[in-house]
Amino acid sequence: MRILGVDPGLTRCGVGVIDAKADRSVSLVHVSVLTTDKQLELPVRLLLLQTELAQLIEKFEPQRIAVERVFAQHNLRTVMGTAQASAVAFLEAAQRGIPVDLHTPSEVKASITGTGRANKVQVASMVGRLLVLPEGKLLPDATDALALAICNAWRGGSLTVPQGALTPAQQRWREAERQAKKRG
Fold first, then answer.
1. Regarding beta strands 26-35 and 12-20, do their DSSP bridges make them parallel or antiparallel, or are they unpaired?
2. Contact at 8 Å (CB) between 100 and 40?
3. Is 79 in contact with 73 (CB distance < 8 Å)?
């Protein structure tokens, strides 16, 4: 299965494509970081992200797209940019009928390193052990995108994870989503 991982961001959006086999082995297909200039107007920045992401999806033809779930942070501007970049990935996937799975940062860390409290260096190190990466140091956005894709390959879609595998925060989040759907 080919999976595209997206670490959403308006200034830097990590994108990683892997191939995953039934035996849980994974191989690198592509990794990059899409960037937009902070000086540009928001609609132009979103269009640039959309154009580049669309080209990558057309080129690599993923069967699933894994996106990091946006969590509220202290900086509202950062949260908004992350959410807007996520929306671009959602729309591109929806236009092509590609399933999208959301994974929390702690879920990705736990899947890759064995602990949901791992730092970016630990995640990047494990991604490097699992995949043959290009020479040179990758930005954290790139390794995070690859980690998302690997997590998706190993755990499946966020909606198919068994209830017991979720952290308490994930369980509360899922329950809040269910309640919101009931209210319409």
1. antiparallel
2. no
3. yes
Distance CA(98)–CA(90), nearest Å, equals 9
Residues of the chain with pLDDT under 50: 158-164
So what's the pLDDT on residue 120?
92
Burial class (CB in 10 A: 0-12, 13-18, 19+), 29: middle
Distances in whole angstroms, Cα of residue 94 to Cα of each of 87, 97, 101: 10, 5, 12
The position carrying tokens 């799975």 is: 101
Whole-prediction pTM: 0.83
CA 127 to each of CA 13, 102, 133: distance values in angstroms, whole numbers, following the listed order: 18, 19, 9
Q: Which residues are catalytic?
A: 7, 68, 141
